[in-house]
Predict the structure.
Amino acid sequence: MLEFKALTLDTIAEVKPYLDTQTWRSCDYTVGGIYLWADCFDYQYAIAEDVLFIKGNAYAEPEIPAFAVPLRGPSTRGRDDNKCPCRLLHRYCLAEKRPLVFSSIPAPAKPRLERLFQCKGRLDSVEEELMAGWSDYLYRCSDHADLPGAAFKRKRNHVSQFRRYDPEARFLPIDTDILPRLRELYAELIADTDMTNASRSQLYDQTMVARLLVDYSRYPFNGLALEARGEIVGFTIGEIQGDTLHVHVEKARYDIPGAYESLAQGFAQWALARGAEYINRQDASGDPGLKRSKESWRPIQLIRKYHIEYPYDMLAACECEYD
């Protein structure tokens, strides 16, 4: 039976090779998407027969455990045998007397999941729900690096405003020497933010970023700090996985026009020079303001996500031969 363990920072080296086999550019299958949000969603992991299983809280039903798409390791990637993930998950849920629930399943990964779980039982009882408001926003990296054409005119104007604020502004790579300055800036940003009506995810994000600025060196991340007039006015942190830059954190002073736009452009230019073709700026978490902001950057695709449930009764009645 699968034995799930806590996702601590010491396990990143073990788990990352499995995450890097994903091909659907979802932020939920990156180191940042898993580890930065592990406490929020109670993520745990198990590795069996060279397959990574991630378990967490189900979408809209936190009391029900849910799974990510099982990921094979690099040595068995592409293997046609689909019995291992199905057998182990099936047995686990039967032993726990729970339905088999998959959550945050990217639309491009659904065919893979269907191949993995080809149960001969009553598939008409499978429940599927689109996770509204949780789609990842995917962009063309060169668009954000160059800000071309009329679609990005306003963004270019904001960047120009920032350059007028300080023509000598510069980007600095995030390292251990600069982290104290980032923590100082972030403390100021938090102090100026009204969290009275903040959502659970917004409250978690605030503490998560503070922890990240302490443990940054333990993550396989890259980041840039933006310095203007001798002060750090913003910073951004992410990771390149395959052909995609995943932006996990982006913070800047609102009182300096164009700081956010300059950060986004600078990080895109940095990633483009390192071979990235796309940028994933994650989902809007149901926040209308965040949704408008992400749409203003002209996404080329929304990576939709699904919640899929195989009822316990169906699992119990299944006569599939997995051995």
